[in-house]
What we know:
Thrombin, subunit H; single chain; alpha+beta; rod-shaped
Amino acid sequence: MHDDEQRPDETVPKPWGVGAERRRRRWRPWWTVALLVLALAAIAALVAVLVQQRHEVRDLRAQAKSTQREVRGTKGDVQDVDRKVDEVGGDVDALTIDVEKITSDVEGSVFVLERGRISGTGYAVAKDPDGGTLLATNAHVAGASKGAIRVIQGDRELDGTVVSSDATADVAMVHVDEDVDLLRAGDGVAVGDPVMAYGTPLGLADTVTQGVVSAVRSQFIQTDAQVNPGNSGGPLFDRAGHVVGTVTAEAALSEDSTGTGLSIALPVSLWCDAVDELEGDFKGC
């Protein structure tokens, strides 16, 4: 036999490339499936993450809207509180009186009056048509008859003259030659209004007390502003600094009793009429 002839029992080796190709073709489908599964799993995981994030974003938006509603609600509550504070502040203002300001504004128009052993208070209300100024006071301070009366303010003393006196109404008018700043009449008061009394209790000039109107009677104003002897004839001011009455007495259960906490002021309209009779002009009447 020739060397190049194939023996029957010898196996001819197969080319390496052919077998490898078949093996690769035999395993390729499994690898493809595995890769596909991995890819699908990755996509599914990504989708799950995106869905979760979307849910979280939606929840955050819902929380944000809820917070906005709460903020709006809180803002509304704050505005309600502010309104209530303003209302309360207004109510408080309506029950208070600026004592310091009113005292500063009127102190040059209020005087101590003395006639004999009687002392009290008077206040400037109008210009006398014949010159000088008219002061208002009580008849039980000025006396029942016309005549001289001491008019004192601080260190100065003015020559005063009682020009009218009505003991029944307890209304009197005093004239001084000097020009004095005038007070203005108020429109009246109601129960609960703050008031301030200015006078000379127990000889102590330029004393102020404050309180509220306890009642408005047909002939007088009742207040809890503390007064004492010497306050008679002095002005009772409203919160605008206008005269609403003339302090006349402290209410007492008997001649010997004191400290009832009730004071009486006659309405300023009585002095408006008295000034008219003297042809004066009491502003605000």
